[in-house]
C-alpha cells in the first residue's frame, strides 16, 4: 500500500554550518569552539577539521541546484555565529551576513523554503575563552553571559534576514551542547565538568528564551519561531523498579531538563533532587523560567535511535554502547552509574540500532506534552558505508530502507493524531560528522572530498520521488 502524506507536508533536507561550509578563515570568520576542538590531538577521528568540509560556502549555487533535483520544498541550514559576529559580541561582519542572504535568495528563487537555525554548536571561541585565565572555570555555556550574547546575535541575524526567512529555530539539540560539550567531553569544548554541564543546560534554555524574544521583536508577525531538540527514547531493560528508576533518571537528564522549562515553565522536581549533590541550581534566577517558556510556533524533533537502560550492574562500570559515544566520562550528571545496553536489531554504520517505533513514540509523546504545537522532524537519517561503484554510481539500499521505515512510522503517528507538518532528512550531503570526522556518511548526496564532486545516491532519487508525490511508495 502506498502511504499518502497530507497536502502541504513539507519535505526537506538539513545541514549545519560547520559540517558543510568550509571556508573557515574567509571573509572575517574567526574560530569557533569546534575549530579549536579539531586542533586538539585525539579529539576528532583522523585529525579531521571543518576547514574545507563540503566547500558549501563556495558551492552553494550548485548545492541549491541539487536540492531542486531532490524536489525539496525546504532546506534547513544553520548560520555560523563566528562568521557573523567573530568575537561573539559587537557589530556584525557584513560579508558573513551577505553569504546567508545570497544562499537564501538562491533558495527562494528555486522555490525552496529556507529554515534557519541560529546555533548548531559553533560557539565563537572567544566566548568560551574569555573567562579563562584568572578563574578556574572556563567560559561558554556554563556562563550566563553567553545566553545574553546569543540574544544579541539573534537580533542581528533577524535584522539582516527577517524580510526573507519565515521559519526560524534558535538552537539545535541543546542536549549535545550541554552534556556532550561539558560533561562527557566528546564534543567541543571537550570539558568534563558535571556541574558546568547543568549550568550550560540552563543557559541554553535561557538563550532560547531570550533569543525567541529578540526574534519576535525583530521579525514580522508571519515568522515562526521554533527549537530543535533531540529527545531520547529511553526504554528500561526490564520492568524492575531499578530499571524503571534508571529510565526516569535518564529521561530527566535527556528530555525533561529542556521540555520542563520550555513547555511547563519549571525544572522537574526529581531532576533537582537527583542532582542535589552536584549543584544547588542557584544559577536559575528569578524570572528565568518565564523567559524560557516562550510560545513556540513549532517543535523540531531529531531522532536516530532509542536508548536501553538498566539499574547499575553491581560494581561493574557502566557500559556505554548507545548513541552517546564511548567516552570515559558519562554525559549524565548524577546518573553516571546507569547502564546502557545495545538494543537488539540491525545497526547503522554509527552502531546505532534501527528502530522506527521510537520515532512514532516520540511524536505521540510530544503530541501529548506540547498540545497545539505543530511538530516537525528536523533530522532523521543514517550513516552507511557508501562507495561509488565502477560506474561511479552510489547504491545505498540500506538508507532507503531506513528512510522508508521511519517515514512509515511518522505516517502512523499522523494517523494517530500527531500534528506533524514536515520531515527533514539528515543530511542533504555527506559532511563533517563531528567527533567522527569524515569517516561517517549521512548524505543523500555523496561527496567525493578530493574533487568535491557531488553524486546523488540512489536514496536521493528515491527521496525525490517521495517529495514530489507526497507518497511513500511500496517496498
Ligand atoms: C545530530 N548523541 O548529532 C546533529 O544535529 C547533527 O549535526 C549530526 O550530524 C547528526 O545528529 C548525526 O549524528 C548528534 O551522541 C550527535 O547522542 C550525537 C548524538 C546525538 C545527536
UniProtKB/TrEMBL annotation:
Region (Disordered), start-end ranges: 313-335
Keyword Translocase: no
Active site: 379 (nucleophile)
Superkingdom of the source species: Bacteria
Hydrolase among keywords: yes
InterPro entries on file: GH, GH_1_N_CS, Glyco_hydro_1, Glyco_hydro_1_AS, Glyco_hydro_1_beta-glucosidase
Catalysed reaction equations from the record: Hydrolysis of terminal, non-reducing beta-D-glucosyl residues with release of beta-D-glucose
GO molecular function, one term: beta-galactosidase activity
EC number: 3.2.1.21
Keywords linked to the UniProt accession: Carbohydrate metabolism, Cellulose degradation, Glycosidase, Hydrolase, Polysaccharide degradation
Family: Belongs to the glycosyl hydrolase 1 family.
NCBIfam families per the UniProt record, alphabetical: BGL
Protein name from the UniProt record: Beta-glucosidase
Organism: Streptomyces coffeae
